[in-house]
């Protein structure tokens, strides 16, 4: 699944990796407004519920700059909604952009209540960690 902005430029991709039983989100370029974040977050929640995944990979390597104004509490509410549909482990691959790193850490720091968060620089490390975390939680079909 791909989301595009008003000019048709991709800003978000979401894939289900069946072999690893995880959802992989990729944020691309500059995220210009809160509506884009809201749309992507809604899609993530829907797909976590649809695929019944307990592990999620949030990839910010291609993101540039901070997220638009993210109201206090919105990130906590979103993470709580992910927990409600079964998510338990959240791997975050950091952007190389300093402003994107600060923004991600700011918005995710208050969310580490029930879902276990881990930050990574490399995709392979994140996937390895998620796979090891997923094992005890795999849902039977």
What layout of secondary structure does this protein have?
Layout: E1 2-4, E2 10-17, E3 22-30, H1 34-51, E4 55-64, H2 74-84, E5 89-93, H3 98-108, E6 116-120, H4 123-134
Parallel strand pairs: 3-4, 4-5, 5-6
Antiparallel strand pairs: 1-2, 2-3
CATH class: Alpha Beta
Which spans of ≥5 residues are poorly predicted at pLDDT below 50? Answer: 137-141
**Strand content range:** 25-35%
Rg estimate, integer Å: 14 Å
- Percent helix, as a range, is 25-40%
Q: Within the CATH hierarchy, at the fold level, what is the topology?
A: Transcription Regulator spoIIAA
Q: How many distinct domains?
A: 1
Shape estimate? globular
**What is the number of helices?**
4
- The computed structural class is alpha/beta
Number of strands: 6
| Elements, N to C (H/E) | EEEHEHEHEH
Distance between the termini: 23 Å
Proper CATH architecture:
2-Layer Sandwich
CATH superfamily: STAS domain
Biggest β-sheet strands, sense, barrel: 6 strands, mixed
Average per-residue pLDDT, rounded, comes to: 82
Q: Name the strands of the widest sheet in spatial order.
A: 1-2-3-4-5-6
């Amino acid at each position: 699944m791909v989301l595009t902005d008003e000019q048709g430029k991709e800003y978000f991709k979401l894939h289900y990796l069946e072999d690893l039983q995880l959802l992989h989100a990729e944020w691309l370029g500059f995220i210009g407004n809160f509506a884009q974040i809201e749309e992507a977050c809604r899609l993530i929640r829907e797909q976590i519920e649809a695929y019944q995944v307990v592990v999620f990979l949030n990839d910010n390597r291609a993101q540039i700059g901070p997220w638009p104004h993210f109201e206090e509490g919105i990130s906590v509410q979103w993470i709580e909604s992910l927990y409600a549909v079964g998510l338990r482990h959240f791997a975050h691959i950091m952007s190389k952009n300093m402003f994107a790193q600060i923004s991600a850490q700011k918005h995710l720091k208050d969310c580490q209540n029930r879902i276990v968060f881990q930050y990574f620089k490399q995709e392979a490390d994140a996937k390895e960690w998620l796979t090891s975390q997923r094992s005890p939680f795999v849902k039977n079909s």
